[in-house]
Amino acid sequence: MLGPGLSTDFDEKGFSVVRGLLSEDDIKLMESDLARRIDELADYLKVVFSDPTASLDTKMLELERNSPGASLIFTHSNIIGPGLFSIWSSEKMLNVVQSVLGKDVDGHPFFAVRPKPPEVDLFVVPWHQDSSYLADGAQTAPQVTCWMPLMDAKIENGCMEVAVGEHFGGEKRHVAQEYEELGNTSWYLEIDPDLVSAFKTEICEVQRGDVIVFTHLTPHRSLPNLSRNCRWSIDMRYIQAGHFSGASQPSIPFRRADTDQDEFVASSKREFLRGQDARDRNLWRHKIERSVWRDRWN
Ligand SMILES: O=C(O)CCC(=O)C(=O)O
């Protein structure tokens, strides 16, 4: 059964663009978390914004100019505040993903906010399947990613490109690409380029409010940002309840199939938010860990 907005060829293609799913209020709710966090990052980097009321986009460009790598630190140190959480766990999002995963859906702990400024090549994410970043065994767990831009995402500012129908073939061979990031060694996982050349692909230009939904086995990449602005996006994930997520953090119960579980779900959500609220907001991460996929790709 397909849910609101998912096209009938989702199963066949492995992805679907849901147009206008998020309202302006929904997006503003998420942006309020990010606005707080970007001001905290400015304090940490000792940058005083020339216009404290400027947009997220303008502020991130100013941070990058003054402190190159600021956008990467932001991404590695995101905190899921009440605005982001309310959309992630919303009926609206769950209604869409339940058509793929069923009514018993949990939040998968891999969640990213990506400010992608023009001059930061490290945000050009190579072809991969999201499953590749998980521990072995999570490939068989039904999962989806929902990718949403905070502004219109086009070829020029680095939108997503997705491979059509390639989710059927299971997990592909990935190679770990090592690179230098903020003085640390970091990695991207990339599908073997020999396999990519056979893909039929679609470039997904989408607008603020649209959401791209794809499976954890759907190959995708993001294009370089050749514009003068910072492209912000959020990617949140869901997993069919009860499956091994392949992440080191637990999944967050959003499940709705059994009303007997309502109290458990409500208290788990409260506990998750309390955990995020208790995080040290002055702790900024400068590197990513190889952790869960360490032994899988060399
Ligand atoms: O936002 C991007 O540039 C890349 C996102 C991505 O690859 C993902 O969500 O898995």
Estimate the mean pLDDT confidence.
94
The name of the CATH topology is: Jelly Rolls
CATH class value: Mainly Beta
Instruction: Specify the structural class.
Output: alpha+beta
Unreliable residue runs:
none
3D structure, described in words:
- This protein has 298 residues and is an alpha+beta fold.
- The protein has a single domain (10-259), classed as Jelly Rolls.
- The protein is 28% helix and 22% strand.
- It has a six-stranded antiparallel β-sheet with strand order 1-8-3-10-2-11.
- A hairpin with a 2-residue loop joins strand 5 and strand 6 (184-191).
- Helix 2 (24-45) runs antiparallel to helix 5 (82-88).
- The radius of gyration is 18 Å and the shape is globular.
- The mean pLDDT is 94.
- The structure holds 2-oxoglutaric acid (AKG).
- 2-oxoglutaric acid (AKG) is lined by residues 114, 116, 123, 125, 130, 145, 147, 220, 222, 233, 235.
List keywords for this structure.
single chain, 298 residues, alpha+beta, Jelly Rolls, 6-stranded antiparallel β-sheet, 3-stranded antiparallel β-sheet, 11 strands, binds 2-oxoglutaric acid
Could you give the topology of this structure?
Elements: H1 10-13, E1 15-18, H2 24-45, H3 56-66, H4 70-76, H5 82-88, H6 91-101, E2 105-116, E3 143-149, E4 160-163, E5 174-181, E6 184-191, H7 193-196, E7 201-204, E8 211-215, E9 220-222, E10 231-240, E11 252-253, H8 262-277
Helix pairs in contact: 2-3, 2-5
2-oxoglutaric acid (AKG) binds next to β2, β3, β9 and β10.
Brief summary:
With 298 residues, this protein is α+β, with helices and mostly antiparallel strands.
